[in-house]
Amino acid sequence: MINPVSKLQRPPGPGVTGHDIPGSAPHFHPPVNQAKQTIENKWNWLGGATGATGNPISGLEKLGVVPELPGSLFGYAQGYRIRYQNGDIYTKNAAGPAYWVPNFISKKYDALGGFRSWLGFPTSDEVRLEDGGIISHFEKGEIYWWNDIGPIDMNQVLMTYSGIHCFGTTDGPGKDEIYAIFTVFAPGSQPATGMTRLYKDVDDKQSVPDNIELYHGKPMGLTLNFVLFERDQGDPNVHMGIVKKAVEQASLGIAGGLSLIDPRCRSCCRSCIKSIRTSNLKRNKQLTRYS
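-> C-alpha cells emitted (291 positions)
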C-alpha cells in the first residue's frame, strides 16, 4: 500500500541532498567536498601558502543557491568561497572552474553585494595591465584597479565627440572652414573611420558644438586618432576616402602603400597604421583610462 503524501515538495536541485530537507536523515554531501577540493586545487596552483593568496582565513563558505534561469526550479548552481590572507577564491559550481579575486578588488566586490550584485560571479583571475593596473572579470562586468585611483566597477564605456574649440588661428586674420577625420581602434573589432560636418566661419576663441558617438564597448586597448583639416586643403570626401583606404590596408597588415598616399594625408595615415599595429600587438593586454 502506498502511503499518501501530506505535503508536496519540489525535487532538490543539484548539490541538494536529503540532509538539506527537514526531517530527513543526515548523510554525506559530495558537492561540498568537491567544491572544497576545487578551490584548494586552485590555491595550490597559485602557489599555496607561499603564493599570491597566502594562507586561508576561513573555511568553505556556501554562498547560496542561484537559479541558472529566472523562475526555473531546476538547473541550480551553488556558489562557494574560501577567503585567504590576500584575497578570495570563488567557484560558482562545485566542479569548477575556480577564480581568485585579490584583496583590493575583493573588498569592492563585497561592498557592491558580491555574487548577488550586478556583476555576478568571477570569470577570471586577476589580469595585470601594462600601466600597473589590475582587472578582474565577472559575468556581467569588470572591476579595474590602479594604485592611485583604487577600484572601479565598470561594464562598457561610451566615448562621444562633443565639438571643437579654436584657441587661435595660425595664418593671420580671417575665418576658416574646417572639419576633422577620426579613426577608432578597439581590440576584437574592425577599425572605424568617420568625418565631422564642415564647420564654417570658425574664428579665434570660438567653440563649435557637435555630437558624434565614437565608441561604445569594453575599454580595452582603445586608440583614437583625430586630424583637423581646412577646407582649402582639398575635397573632404577625397581625404576621407584616402584615410579610410589606408586604415583598411593597415588592418590587413599592408603598410607599403604609404608612398602612394597624398602627402597632405600621409602623416595621418602613418599614425593610423602605427596605431593599428600597436593595438594588434597589445590586444587584450592593455586598458585605456577615461576621465
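Confidence is low (pLDDT under 50) at residues 1-28, 253-291.
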